[in-house]
Amino acid sequence: MALPIMIDCDPGHDDAIALVLALASPELEVKAVTASAGNQTPEKTLRNVLRMLTLLNRPDIPVAGGAWKPLMRDLIIADNVHGESGLDGPSLPEPAFAPQNCTAVELMASVLRESQEPVTPGGHRAAD
């Protein structure tokens, strides 16, 4: 049985690859993806999630935007890490669907309320 997970990320290249791997794994069932500020603005990271899920033909996965800035420090934009878009390099399609009309926290709460089984944030399985 696949482990139900929610993914919170800030795609960049590293998180884009993590999304590909999670969605390709028969051991995981991605219930939602949320995007927050990281090396780029939250608008760009949210757009990158939508672009990646469009590329992977997964508009069925609900997406929401999260925090507009880190909780404990100022937002540092690092164009030198992942480029101006936060995901420079690959040619990605424009988003074919929109995010949910809610915040990341509201989406996570909704997924947890509606699930008949525990949902793991981030995909870390607890030790048996």
Automatic annotation (TrEMBL):
Give its E.C. classification number.
Answer: 3.2.-.-
Task: Quote one Gene Ontology molecular function term.
Answer: purine nucleosidase activity
InterPro entries for the chain: I/U_nuclsd_hydro_CS (IPR015910), Inosine/uridine_hydrolase_dom (IPR001910), IUNH (IPR023186), Ribo_hydro-like (IPR036452)
Keyword flag Secreted: no
Q: Which PROSITE patterns match?
A: IUNH
Cellular component annotations (GO), alphabetically ordered: cytosol
Pfam families referenced in this protein's UniProt entry, alphabetically: IU_nuc_hydro
- Single GO biological process annotation from the record: purine nucleoside catabolic process
Q: Which UniProt keywords apply?
A: Glycosidase, Hydrolase
Q: Which residues form the Inosine/uridine-preferring nucleoside hydrolase domain?
A: 5-120
Protein name per its UniProtKB record: Ribonucleoside hydrolase 1
Native organism: Klebsiella pneumoniae
